[in-house]
Design a protein that fits this description.
- It holds the Pfam family FAD_binding_2.
- One of its GO terms (molecular function) is succinate dehydrogenase (quinone) activity.
- Keywords: Electron transport, FAD, Flavoprotein, Heme, Iron, Metal-binding, Oxidoreductase, Periplasm, Signal, Transport.
- α18 crosses α19.
- Helix content is about 35%, strand content about 20%.
- The chain is an alpha+beta fold and about 600 residues long.
- It is built from 20 helices and 20 strands.
Length: about 600
């Protein structure tokens, strides 16, 4: 075995040679290179006969022992370039998420971004959707082979809803296995930036904000065009402050409170300084799930929910990326696998006008949870309601949080003019942007807004923010008429001073755009959230399509469900949804497992 220093030096020489165009006989994949260095033992435990598990626990530990962890690699990266190792992702990110052994390596970041990293032994990242029942014969054979292991509760999905369910179930005394098909945990939660809506909270009281749970209920119903399930909305709002307390008790910082579109009151909770809420909440939940001894398995796709002759859930069939098919016997199953916004074929099926749209979601949001629920006989609702987020960055491949607008930014078109109330609901904002020249617009803000929201620093890091010393300078970079943009900003600042937007009736005017330097981001709508999904009741029990009654032992939470958000989700309600209903689903599943 090479020492860590020697191996790092050897890899550095290989990479520098590749970048400089040096001629050498390059191995095709990492396994070839490591084979030359130290044989299979440099990655694997030889007496185990292959990989240790689907997390590749041993293999990833070997990578870190030689090359360092993400923090070390990020610290060594050039300061003037985006580092692929400076990650906003949660958990213990595995090296093998990108660096493959026996096949071409991939840049997983390209699932969302387009940085063009030139990775040694690299191939092109791509995701082909494979139906959950694509290999039915092999699946039936695995089921016939019998149960491999047993647990109390299986949770499908490692986003906020899944992690909340796992923590909640563990706290209720259940043995939990959490299964995630992606190599990276966190789902869409790790990408959410805006905030978590909650009413009558301690942070609101400390800031002197008066809010009522009934107002949150009314706002949510109105935003969803009143087709939401009122009982689910009541649970969302009435438990929201408790969910903030629950997160806080586990170490979360939810002290900053702002406002997002459709809200009548400032109730969007986030970390100090307006830092991104999703990655923070997901990391807190991940840490607490790990602390509680949750068995978390990545690269593990649930392809079937198993039931007995009476329709009662008995477990799941899993396809491990490296270990193959196997059966887990479980008393209860929680589906928290998210929506299907990244599956454009399915999106277009329900809403044809969104065909070909980009999506703000993580690559695993393809609808697997919905598919296994349908196989199990679950009822669905509202699948035709799919939300486009108005502020997606085409250049960066990321969603720009609604909190930028909430903190005072304005939206202008290519003529330099405002054309809407910036904090209207997402459906209305998206429609307004699509009516503009180029079907995109610019988000304009100043240094005071940048300093008010830490999330903006991530966009600066991605090199997608334009900067100007003056408004006129910024206009030149955007190829927007300077005089018009200056006039627009001056007019808006006048509204801020008077406290009333007489042009578009924007309800909150937190600050003028007057502190240099000035900034702008190009934005366009992208598919963001699928409001429809599995029908659940207030206990997170999944209802049967045939009987309308709960399917015994089956629960669901988060974006995979329908009814909470109606026809249109309000910004800030998703995190509230996943935490509140994730907690309920985990507790309900644990109780069912205990009683049965």
């Amino acid at each position: 075995m090479f020492t860590r220093k020697i191996q790092k030096t050897a890899l550095a020489m290989l990479i520098s040679g590749a970048m400089a165009g040096t001629a050498y006989a390059a191995p095709e994949v990492l396994a070839d290179f490591h084979g030359e260095m130290g044989g299979c033992d440099s990655c694997h435990v030889s007496d185990k006969g292959g990989v240790t598990n689907d997390n590749l626990t041993h293999e990833n530990a070997q990578c870190v022992s030689c090359h360092g962890d993400l923090k070390e690699l990020a610290a060594a990266a050039p300061k003037d370039k985006v580092s692929p190792h400076k990650s906003h992702l949660i958990g213990e990110i595995a090296c093998t998420s990108c660096h493959k052994g026996h096949e071409k390596s991939v840049t997983y970041c390209d699932a969302c971004h387009s940085f063009g990293f030139d990775m040694p032994f690299g191939g092109k990242w791509e995701r082909k959707f494979v139906p959950v029942d694509a290999d039915k014969a092999a699946q039936d054979k695995a089921i016939a082979a019998g149960v491999k292991e047993t647990t109390d509760v299986v949770v499908i999905g490692s986003g906020g809803a899944g992690l909340a369910a796992a923590v909640s179930a563990r706290d209720a005394g259940a043995k939990v296995i959490l299964l995630e098909k992606e190599p990276i945990p966190g789902g869409n939660t790790k990408l959410a930036a805006g905030g978590m809506n909650a009413a009558e909270t301690k942070p609101q009281a400390k800031l002197g904000i008066e809010d009522k749970k009934q107002i949150m209920i009314d706002d949510t119903m109105k935003g969803g065009r009143n087709i939401n399930d009122p009982e689910l909305v009541k649970v969302l709002a009435n438990n929201s402050s408790d969910s903030i307390d629950w997160l806080t008790s586990m170490g979360a910082d939810m002290t900053d409170v702002g406002r997002m579109g459709g809200a009548s009151v400032n109730r969007s909770h986030r970390p100090t300084g307006g830092a991104g809420v999703g990655a923070h909440v997901a990391q807190v939940l991940w840490d607490n799930a790990v602390k509680r001894g949750t068995d978390i398995r990545l690269n593990s796709r649930v392809v079937r929910i198993l039931e007995d002759a009476s329709g009662k859930v008995t477990g799941v069939l899993v396809k491990g990326e490296y270990t193959g098919y196997y059966v887990i016997k479980a008393d209860a199953v929680v589906i928290a696998a998210g929506g299907f916004a990244k599956n454009n074929d399915r999106v277009a099926k329900y809403d044809p006008k969104l065909k070909g749209f980009k999506a703000t979601n993580h690559p695993g949001a393809t609808g697997d949870g919905l598919d296994v629920a349908l196989q199990a006989g679950a009822a669905t609702r509202d699948l035709e309601y799919i939300q486009a987020h108005p502020t997606y960055s085409p250049a960066g491949g990321v969603m720009i949080t609604e909190a930028v607008r909430g903190n005072g930014a304005i939206v202008v078109n290519r003529d330099g003019n405002r054309f809407m109330n910036e904090i209207t609901t997402r459906d209305k904002a998206s429609a307004a942007i699509l009516q503009q020249k180029g079907e995109s617009a610019y988000l304009v803000f100043d240094d005071s807004i940048r300093k008010s929201l830490k999330a903006i620093e991530g966009y600066v890091h991605l090199n997608i923010v334009k900067e100007g010393k003056t408004i006129e300078d910024l206009a030149k970079q955007l190829d927007v008429p300077a005089a018009e943009l200056a006039k627009t900003v001056t007019s808006y600042n006048g509204f801020v001073k008077s406290g009333k937007d007489t042009q578009f009736e924007r309800p909150n005017l937190p600050r003028e755009i007057a502190t240099a330097p000035f900034y702008a981001l190009e934005i366009a709508p992208a598919v963001h959230h699928t409001m429809g999904g599995i029908v659940i009741d207030t206990k997170a029990e999944v209802k049967s399509d045939k009987t309308g009654k709960p399917i015994e032992g089956l629960y669901a939470a988060g974006e995979v469900t329908g009814g909470v958000h109606g026809a249109n989700r309000l910004g800030g309600n998703a995190i509230s949804d996943i935490v509140t209903y994730g907690r309920i689903a985990g507790a309900s599943a644990a109780k069912y497992a205990k009683d049965h």
